[in-house]
Amino acid sequence: MSHIPAFLFALAALAVSAVPPLAAQSPQPEDSTGRGAHALAFADRHMVAAAHPDAVEAGLAMLRRGGSAADAAIAVQLVLGLVEPQSSGIGGGAFALHLDADTRAVTAYDGRETAPLDATHDMFLLTDGKPMPRGAAATGGLAVGTPGTVALLARLHREHGRLPWAELFGPAIELAREGFTVGPRLATMLAGRRAERLKTFETTRDYFFPGGAPLTAGTVQRNPAYADTLSRLARDGAAAFYEGPVAQDIVGAVRGAATNPGVMRLEDLSGYRVVARMPVCPVYRMYRICGMGPPSSGGLTVGQILGILANFDLPGMGRDDPQSWHLINEASKLAFADRNRYIADADFVPVPADGLLDRDYLAARAALIRQQTSIIPPVAPGRPPGIPREPRASDDSVRPPGTSHISVVDGDGNAVSMTTTIEGAFGSQLMVRGFLLNNQMTDFNFVAERDGRPVANAIAPGKRPRSSMAPTLVFDRDGALRLAVGSPGGSRIIGYVAKTLVAVLDWEMDIQAAIDMGHLVNRNRFTDLEDGTGAEDLKAPLEALGNRVKVRDLNSGLHGIEIVDGRLRGGADPRREGVARGD
Ligand code: DON
What we know:
This protein has 583 residues and is of the alpha+beta class. Helices cover 30% and strands 16% of the residues. The strands form 6 sheets. It has a 7-stranded antiparallel beta sheet with strand order 1-22-21-17-16-9-8. Strands 7-4-3-11-10-2-23 form a 7-stranded antiparallel beta sheet, with helices on one face. Strands 18-19-20 form a 3-stranded mixed beta sheet. The longest helix is centred in the middle third of the chain and has 21 residues, at 322-342.
């Protein structure tokens, strides 16, 4: 902690002081699927936390057979692609942070989709030069980025797997062949108005609307095409995805899409490469918070929020003090201003990563925060050390909600924190051989320049669209793993993860309680407060400080595992249908 502004010790009679303690409010007792909140899970050996019980069981089965955290994460992902197809799968991309317990090395695997070689900076512009509405761009072939998830799983296995590759496919193949039970969340989404888009393409429509009606909760659904695809991958490895009949069908579906035909070629798939990167690991109080650097904005922006908050005594103020939330709100605005200006794929544009996390720079940003007023968004970006000389324009694209987070710790202390996505719900809506293709290209900014200045996150061939995914591993002062966590939620992921870290590390809440606690998110625009939770009580005090506040559904999917006194404790988000389980 560098300095504590005096005003924080002189909490005067602000409007905020009349607010009831947040801790007194319980989280919403039931989520939209009708499921109740979870109890904190405990384990002594190993644990998996993910978005669906079938996927968690597949991961646990691998751990019980002596598999590593990497093995378990792979099995989880393969099942998620079946039982939670709206969120992630082999047609998408992912980031995985891996801790090797022996060497203590943390590796950040980048399996993000790439823009096809024939992509152009103006591919989402209409004839009048205006950008396509995002909703219209989100369906069909043009939005599909070259998928990276299969290559990521193969790399994880090659470097950290213990069980035979083919064995990891067993649970998913069996469930796809014999049938899985459609869960309430998938059924609710299929019954909704937005699922109409799925009917754009015949194969997708026939799978999700057999006989014309949406799949309903409790139905046993088979996916023989997915079982066949997985069997090929189990037998022949990732090459069976990136070359040969599967690759040909992906390209055929993308280019032949009746809506928004795309430009992907076989060379895009055969040329796809996972990148092993250095994680971004800023220090927050006594912890090292490792996250995903560019092309994700997750690690740097969570790091900026925490780096600004490190200038205040959040542990002393506690979670019941609305000033704590005021500070989180302000820090989020400031961090998003920099994110929108400076962060994109660093292999294509210079990103001042060190400067964005520079302690003095963040202390200067923290000094902009006032106790009695809020900064009116949009806040201007700062000038961190190392910013590119060429002036840049900001983008402020706000992404709608298909993503999932997997946390695994194995019996040897290896860990995986992996956030995986097909971007929007059901991705591009294009289904090939039993899996959905992503619409990750919509994570680029559609406009390449503003007022003559280039936008960092513009489209270029081979470039990876900026992400907000924030898979995180936290280490204590001794370098021991303290926490693995992450979430879906589009650019709100950053706020969900930052809040959970503050709750666990500063307010000593257990991971389940931290996940349950109502959300506050600010992306340098409105302050979003979570409907039906204690966070709603912040509306009046934050408005009194000048904020524009919206109370709304905030659908995180946080899955975390912490290590406390040598024991594993797991939490799963009651807002979705995941669980944390271990032995
Ligand atoms: O990479 C990203 O940041 C987005 N494509 C993630 C989308 C997402 O989290 C949707 N979630 N519910």
